[in-house]
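Please go through the sequence and fold tokens given here and tell me how the chain folds. Record follows.
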Amino acid sequence: MTQTEHHLPRGLAPKVPDPGDAPADRTPPAAQGHVARILDTSPFPILLVCLVGIVLLSAFAPSLVVGDTWLTLVAGREVNDHGLPSTEHLTILGEGRTWTDQQWLAQVVFYAAHALAGMRAVILLGIAFVLLALGLATATARTSGASSRSTFVIGVLAILAGPWGWTLRAQTTALPLFAGTLWLLVDASRRGVRRRTLLVLPLLVLWANLHGSVVLGAILAMLLGAVELVRARRLASIPLALIVLSPIAVLASPYGTKLVAYYDLMLVDAPFAEILREWQWSSPSATTALFWLLALVAAGLLALRRCRSRLTVYELAVFAVTFVGAVQAVRGVIWFAFVAAAILPVALDGVLTKADVEAPKVNRVISVAALAGLAVALVAFLARPATWFVSEWPEAQVEAVSEATRDPSVKLWATDGTADWLLWRVPDLRGRIAYDIRFELYDEAALDRIVDYGTRTGDWQRALDGYRVVVVDDRAHLEALAAEPGARVTYRDEEIAIVERR
């Protein structure tokens, strides 16, 4: 008997490794402990993210595919086939105009996903971006000291505030970048800026090639720099770098300084703002009701000093900036919702003062069960037939349009909701379709023509001069066009009709 074995209780003597033993778990103990700690202490944020994933992977997956989804794929194909565009050649009304495709990288990413596994991969990738963004937002709240309970409560309100923000489009790729940027900036406002805060800059560079919301990310980074400079009362290098380099990062694109004109058009004086609901202010309505509910909850909490004092000056400023943006335009609601999910839970703890219940075993069961449910939903999603993913876009409509435009001289007038879908499914329509949802490409005359047709203003049928095939999505247009001499309806279902004209 060795000396060690003599002094140790039975069963605790060190075991001499046997070369034939199975290899031990190679996962670093620190990593195992970190994962276990998250499972044991954050069951409700994990449950929230998993529930969203389960819902999106199941019944709502086909509903995520919208007109912007098809535009993203069409533009991705355009970049793949013809390189980065600078001039518009897809539509008739926009032919020859400057096309600054700021979102080119997001489009290429989704196009590559489609080439890999069709719409199944496109939708799955989009959902992954959404869940990653939600995970980062809830992680921001938790690392800021928010309780698991408050993170869940505010998270639910934030998710419901702008559901249109979950649909698949180029913007989807920007969601995790926004959430990641916000995490770094909020962390710096609470713990002080340091070198890792500068990771915001490469995130902005990537973001500058994905979606125009990078401008908001740069504004928030510059805002932190300004707040820190005021607080330090000296020219500190990292805050100064954020102020100087963030706007430069916004232009880190193959288009370079051409993006200045693009952002001026899109953000300062958009001529199409009166046409698109997303560019209009968030007036109270059924669509924006839950956004205003979230805003009222936020206002009520921030009116209480014990809640407001739990937030930093920077966090309050971010709240103000994103709230103003959300009120000015519906498209800004999604960013305010993420800010609320990341920041507001800490304030809510000023009211719900009771700490999270310490029940590690129960919490781990909740976390593991939620993750298991998400895994089951993923397996079911992958097992779906390919037709399910595009079930809200009838193939019969594509076949009817393809047949009606078989002659390459025929020009097509479609709705903005169907144009890019038809361009994607019938590539020969390139250069033969009137317009699509890129309204920033069209001049005033073209926009007037589109509006006159849509609102049936004046002699609106003259807007269709030169177009032998029209896709109609309402009865008033259909009755008027079908009454034209020589016109005939060649296809009709509950959603659209196709009219061939002389």
About this structure: The chain has 20 helices and four strands. The mean pLDDT is 91. The radius of gyration is 27 Å. The chain has two domains: 31-64+100-373, 395-500.
